[in-house]
User: Fold this.
Amino acid sequence: MLRILDLLLSMLSLILGLPLLLVIYIISLFDTGSPLFRQTRVGRDGRPFTLVKFRTMKPGTPSVATHLASRSAVTSFGRLLRHTKLDELPQVWNVLKGEMSFVGPRPCLSSQTELVQERNRRGVLRARPGITGLAQIKGIDMSTPSLLAETDAEMLASLGVREYFRYIYRTLIGAGSGDRIRP
Assistant:
């Protein structure tokens, strides 16, 4: 049922959001010269996939977990995209392709071995990674691998249609801070 919701919502989001996606893309062209950011992440069953987001950092910035990134690498437009979470919009394409869900554990980098091991141990990697989830709403980022994996497992154990829409709604109204760049 959740996959059907993912398909319907991703198609609707892409159709209705196309004008906004185009505006952000054009502004990002002037901001960074390279509007889309692609990064290999750990997906369902530990398989790698290419996550797509709007670029919020200067091109050439080292590819590290967000909490390890330099605050000075974020552009002024990138700060706005991060604050409004609009940098996540291209991930709707990942949802449509079946690599992600709207709700699930945030996909991490393969270099985050402690988090990958914790998630594997708790069965979290069996689920599609998501754009948002319980950890993001609670403000838990990837700097605390054990707590994050525990929260992801808790979310997946009770994830149904009601919770799916609740996590999306809470994200849209600005609950939590998700992965944030540390000072």
